[in-house]
Amino acid sequence: MTKEYDDIIHLPHHVSKARPHMAGIDRAAQFSPFAALTGHSASVKETARLTNVRVELDENMKDVLSDRLQILADRLDEEHEIEVTYFQPDMKKNGGAYVSAVCTVKKIDKYERVIVMTDGTVIPIVEIVSIDGQIFETLGFHECDE
């Protein structure tokens, strides 16, 4: 060791009278790394997440769906299980996803333009792309996709 600090090397450690003693863990926290880009990786993941584009139905398909909705409305008390595929808009970005719900119809609200399923799912009629089920096969209807 050099003799440069000989005048102060053996002095007692300074203890402040104005501030309380800081614990070692708190002192170490002062020097922990700073995360300047907090949330950046979540933002990148959200941007990379893919969504589907809403498909516009032709008039023929709209007529088929309308007929099927009328059949369901006429037979609500029979509780037929159906599969409804519909577009669910994404809340964070453009586009959305196509979702299928398999259940029985509880109510068709023509004023609100929604189908309410017995499991509580509410489906906007304008978002429906297909309705399938055993009821349509027994009545001689073809699949919605044709």
Q: What is the CA-CA span between the terminal residues?
A: 90 Å
**CATH class placement of the largest domain:** Mainly Beta
CATH topology of the largest domain: SH3 type barrels
Largest sheet: 5 strands, antiparallel
**Share in β-strands:** 15-25%
Number of helices: 4
Identify low-pLDDT runs.
Answer: none
Count the beta strands.
Answer: 5
Number of domains: 2
Structural write-up:
By secondary structure, the chain is α+β, with helices and mostly antiparallel strands. It folds into two domains: 3-48, no CATH class; 59-138, Roll (SH3 type barrels). It contains four helices and five strands, in the order H-H-H-E-E-E-E-E-H. The protein has a five-stranded antiparallel β-sheet. A hairpin with a 4-residue loop joins strand 2 and strand 3 (114-117). The mean pLDDT is 85.
Key words describing this protein structure:
single chain; about 150 residues; alpha+beta; SH3 type barrels; 2 domains; five-stranded antiparallel β-sheet; 4 helices; YolD-like family protein
